[in-house]
Amino acid sequence: MRAHGKTGRRTGALFVMLLLAFAGARAGDVTPADIPARIAKAEVGEWALYRLPDGRRLRLTVVEEFGFGKTRGVVIEKCMMNARNRVLDVTEETVNIEDAVWDLTHLSPGDELSMSEILIGKRRIDAVVISYAGDGEPALQSYFSDEVPVYGLVKGVKIGKAERIVMMQLIDHGFAEE
Predict the structure, then answer these.
(1) Confidence of residue 137 (pLDDT cuts 50, 70, 90)
(2) Closest CA to 151 of 62, 88, 32
(3) Minimal CA–CA distance to 173: which of 141, 158, 151, 142?
(4) How confident is the model at residue 6 (pLDDT cuts 50, 70, 90)?
(5) Exposed e or buried b for every residue in 35-50, given b needs 16+ CB within 10 A?
(6) 83, 97 contact by CB (below 8 A)
(7) Long-range contacts of 27-32 (CB under 8 A, 24+ apart)
(8) Which CATH code for domain 9-173?
(9) Is the predicted pLDDT of residue 4 greater than 80, yes or no?
(10) Cα–Cα distance between 15 and 2 in angstroms, integer?
(11) Do residues 87 and 77 touch, judged by C-beta distance below 8 A?
(12) What residues does 48 pair with on adjacent strands?
């Protein structure tokens, strides 16, 4: 039996900040209303697979839905695998949908929004780019698309003074086999 405790409003934001990426954003009139809050549409069975900088892979799968209306939530299984897809660790996170959407769409002063087209394999995905401010310059960038299941995260980067480190990049997504 799973416990569905309250998650803090920043839990989703902290997780998202770990899933950041970079891919040449183009400027535009993008507002917080344009940010795809894909987690609000999450359904059991959908999944997203990401490559991490050290070659490991992270598969996020929605394994349970609970509640109704604004108290709706999902349980996301996080499966960490090595480069050969051998399972290293499996954990679960309970996500309050309302909190996760609020975290995603309420930006801090200095955060910027733009649009970008990202190539994943042979497929082009339009994404909203959130550049999180840090010491006057973007410190993190997250790319979100309504086309990607679970959180909608496509890719992300941690930005240092002299380098950009891709923290996570989508390599596949879809629904679990029945």
Answers:
(1) low
(2) 62
(3) 151
(4) very low
(5) bbbbbeebeeebbbbb
(6) no
(7) 27/114, 28/114, 28/115, 30/113, 30/114, 30/115, 30/128, 31/113, 32/105, 32/106, 32/107, 32/113
(8) 2.40.360
(9) no
(10) 20
(11) no
(12) 60, 173
Tell me how far CA of residue 168 lies from CA of 51, 54, 56, 147, in angstroms.
6, 10, 10, 17
pLDDT at 14: 34
- pLDDT > 70? residue 106: yes
Tokens of 26: 């183009």
What is the DSSP secondary-structure string of 65-76? EE--GGG-EEEE
CA distance 66 to 125: 30
Do the Cβ atoms of 50 and 120 come closer than 8 Å?
no
Domain boundaries, the chain: 9-173
Among left, alpha and beta (phi > 0; psi -120 to 50; other), residue 7 is: beta
How many of the other CB atoms lie within 10 Å of CB of 73? 21
The tokens of 122 are what?
């042979």
